[in-house]
Amino acid sequence: MTEQATGAHHPQPRPRSGGQQSAPEHVTGAQSLIRSLEEVGADTVFGIPGGAILPAYDPLMDSTKVRHVLVRHEQGAGHAATGYAQATGRVGVCMATSGPGATNLVTPIADAHMDSVPMVAITGQVASKAIGTDAFQEADIVGITMPITKHNFLVTKAEDIPRIIAQAFHIAATGRPGPVLVDIAKDALQARTTFSWPPVMDLPGYRPVTKPHAKQIREAAKLITGAKRPVLYVGGGVIKARATAELKVLAELTGAPVTTTLMALGAFPDGHPLHVGMPGMHGSVTAVTALQKADLIVALGARFDDRVTGKLDSFAPHAKIVHADIDPAEIGKNRAADVPIVGDAREVIADLIQAVQKEHADGHQGDYTAWWKDLSRWRDTYPLGYDQPTDGSLSPQQVIERIGQLAPEGTIFAAGVGQHQMWAAHFIQYEKPATWLNSGGAGTMGYAVPAAMGAKAGAPGQTVWAIDGDGCFQMTNQELTTCALNNIPIKVAIINNGALGMVRQWQTLFYNQRYSNTVLHSGPDDVNPQARGTRVPDFVKLSEAMGCVGLRCESPDDLDKVIEEANAINDRPVVIDFVVHEDAMVWPMVAAGTSNDEIMAARDVRPDFGDSEDD
């Protein structure tokens, strides 16, 4: 079975389900937990101790294999575990105490669930006899997280700990990856037990299908070679399956255009001539239109989410659908599939390559000449671009573009959520998988800084830039202290437009420029005149107070010099406050709830595709 995990670098050791067991050791449940983490190959845990989980922190101090990173907020621990997993391909691990500690993990768990990230969250729970009594710092975290985990466990017996940890890592990493919660009662951590490895795995009914059905593969290959206007619609599942090399072979074999979703950037090289961009609400005109005009969409590890499809009943009206996914629940969920394929993306694509080669050998070769003529015209007519501000201020798009151009090879980019996220998706070139980390499904503000921290902890040899907004940054910036104290030298670009930028853009376009509660640099009606003209907060001073190098850039003339200065500092975290023009907008755009046919290339600019392409 192909192990599933995000990224493309370090396979996680999988717990064995049988074989020679080690001799039993007499330990506490807490010691058993730490030994189990060592055995499954966990090398980094992000967390904060507290009463119910405290027994586990004592043996953790003695472990030479598991590094614990003390974060400043449990949300930071969860996003760091996600960033670690996305950058390395291994299971991320976070740990928290009961009650508020556990509930602070809910947002990153939901985030990991939406984006199919392998993560194990370990929480302490009140003593088993106190469960259900509203004891101090009690919360039913198993019940709370049931809809947002792939699976979760409540452990009340010390002897169950090794088996459940082994099962949690196996479930998180295989099939469609996702978060698994393990909630352990305090008395189970304190009790005496025996530890031996490997435990006997007991997962009846959990058998993810990885090998696709040969008949469905043959049907898909026939549709590909028979289509006139095919599109390969590539989602994040291709990166998780480590199928990017196979994808490149399939694309070049067929000659079909490739569009990569927000979660799949880097799955196919941005600079490849077959790549037509990112689809979706803020996708490229060519990618969005290619899907609309297609007669065949081959969806690989993608889920037809609303940000890609726009108004669902008007999406790709002429297209037949081949939908390949490891999760059968996704197939047909939003769009009926003409050829459904359940399987691991790597195996699906490898089999598709062979089936298409056979079609070619039998004389069935797709002719996409006319299709590429249209695609090339759209790509030339409506390229991604931006206008420089006329007042001499910084363009946020240019800032992000130059960060990408000046970054060392192999740099990992983590983005928050909003305008800066879309600009980072558009104006940085992603040529390799696992170099773009973002919160796609949940759209979690505050993701970037802790995710970058986790990525750098997991891949210390790579440069890691967090592209953040001034709104997102103020949600989780306390993790910069964690970075400074734990030798995790990330680089943070704050795209500071003084507002909640994406919400402000919607207010500009749809709410008659009534900027209700989106301005970040003044209070209600600016009631404190003494604060006018000052920087609240001053991000440079704030960053310096947390042990980072703080820099500021306000002029295009200083842009390269400041970025290069940040790239040269590798012994501490660096934060740059880029003060940018507040009215920059993200284009192209499909307004929420409208058809992708209504895409706007820029403000008041609707693309003209003519009538000939509609047949």
What amount of the residues lies in strands? 15-25%
Straight-line N-to-C gap: 44 Å
Q: How helical, in percent, are the residues?
A: 25-40%
Number of helices, where a helix is a run of at least 4 consecutive DSSP H or I residues: 23
Lateral strand order in the biggest sheet: 3-2-4-5-7-6
Structural class: alpha/beta
How does the major sheet shape up? 6 strands, parallel
Q: pLDDT below 50 for ≥5 consecutive residues: which ranges?
A: 1-18, 611-615
Tell me how many strands there are. Answer: 20
Seen as an oligomer or otherwise, the chain set is: single chain
- Rg over CA atoms: 25 Å
Shape: globular
Give me a quick take on this structure.
The chain has 615 residues and is of the alpha/beta class.
Structure description:
The chain is α/β, with parallel strands linked by helices and 615 residues long. Helix content is 34%, strand content 15%. It contains 23 helices and 20 strands. A 6-stranded parallel sheet has the order 3-2-4-5-7-6, sandwiched between helices. A 6-stranded parallel sheet has the order 11-10-9-12-13-14, with helices on both faces. Helix 2 links the parallel strand 2 and strand 3 (67-70). Residues 1-18 and 611-615 have low confidence and may be disordered.
